[in-house]
Amino acid sequence: MLRQTLLQAAKSDRLRHLVETAPVSRGVVKRFVAGDREEDAVLVSAELVGSGRRVTLDHLGEDTTGTGQARAVREAYVKVLAMLSAAGVTESGKVEVSVKLSAVGQALPGDGEAVALENARAICEAAAQAGTTVTLDMEDHTATDSTLGILAELRKDWPWVGAVLQSYLRRTEGDCKDLAGQGSRVRLCKGAYDEPESVAYRDTHEVDLSYVRCLKILMAGQGYPMVASHDPRLVDIAGALAVENHRPLGSYEFQMLYGIRPQEQKRLAGLGETMRVYVPYGNQWYGYLMRRMAERPANTVFFVRGLVTRG
Ligand code: FDA
């Protein structure tokens, strides 16, 4: 119930304005977001790399409403990739970027997909120059086919472009089979949007079971699985499946969100596992933060307490 309410709230412009302008919101947000500026993103990325972790950087923003805005997001990515490269943290893909196609124009009426593809191409080009990779985030189920279509186009020129698949979607086992081939990079997550029963498992246990089925396919395949979860059981299962499939360290990776289970992130990195942290930055943090709160009531308590106590 709370989850659905928060996911609905994530779409409300009025609430967005209220929360974003509350005097202490930014202080509270700091736990999950690197900061507003590119400089903040580079600093946090360098710190994480220094601690033995890897990074995928997300310029916050979604549901872009004009081509100018989409272009600005593209430019922000190109700029931050150049800055990361100059800071020496992009080599061997240590810091890569995650891109929401809706932020670069996918949902614009008419030629939105073409706009998003063109902008994503420019970001991939900049990533290639920096010696790193790009992963396309996955949004709600109405965008899945379009996102996978754009992925296929991009992979013709840059085979390392990664995809995200969500285990709560009933279709995802099939998508895993399609994307388990050589060179394919797939981030498997549970899924963060409020999806209808017709396309998604609504029961958390079913979502977990689906996650394991999907992970089995990816770990047995020829690609590079990216295990995106904070769930201790799924982390253990991923480790066991890697052993069962004779996968050496470095042929798959774990991923967690910035500010969530940092000790566990360090523990996995300390064991020699590849551990990548998803780091969002920018001032459009509202939708991202609402989804994090929907996942875990403790995050909501933390946020509300910060607002109420102004500290
Ligand atoms: P879940 O939230 O069910 O938590 C399972 C268990 O993990 C908990 O019971 C607890 O033990 C532990 N746990 C979770 N949060 C904790 C905390 N704060 N502190 C301590 N323990 C905690 N979604 C999407 O739809 N599209 C996308 O592109 C992405 N991208 C993405 C990238 C990365 C790197 C990650 C980690 C996640 C995403 N997601 C995503 C979000 C994802 O779909 C999902 O909503 C969240 O990861 C939460 O799911 P978990 O698997 O962590 O389990």
Keywords, please?
311 residues; alpha/beta; TIM Barrel; eight-stranded parallel β-sheet; 13 helices; binds dihydroflavine-adenine dinucleotide
Structure description:
The chain is α/β, with parallel strands linked by helices and 311 residues long. It folds into two domains: 1-32 and 285-311, no CATH class; 33-82 and 94-284, TIM Barrel (Alpha-Beta Barrel). It has 13 helices and eight strands. It has helices at residues 2-9, 13-21, 25-29, 38-50, 67-86, 112-130, 144-157, 172-178, 204-220, 232-244, 262-270, 286-295, 297-309, and strands at residues 54-59, 95-99, 134-136, 163-166, 185-189, 224-228, 253-257, 275-281. The chain has an eight-stranded parallel sheet. Helix 1 runs antiparallel to helix 12 (286-295), helix 4 (38-50) crosses helix 5 (67-86) and helix 8 runs parallel beside helix 9 (204-220). The longest helix is centred in the N-terminal third of the chain and has 20 residues, at 67-86. The model has no long low-confidence stretch (mean pLDDT 92). Residues 137-138, 164, 166, 187, 189-193, 228-232, 255-257, 260-261, 278, 295-296 line the site of dihydroflavine-adenine dinucleotide.
Q: How many β-strand stretches? A: 8
Coarse morphology: globular
- Describe the strand arrangement of the main beta sheet, using strand numbers: 3-2-1-8-7-6-5-4
Q: Radius of gyration, rounded? A: 18 Å
Helix content: 40-55%
Encode the helix/strand succession as letters: HHHHEHEHEHEHEHEHEHEHH
Mean pLDDT: 92
Number of helices: 13
Sheet with most strands = 8 strands, parallel
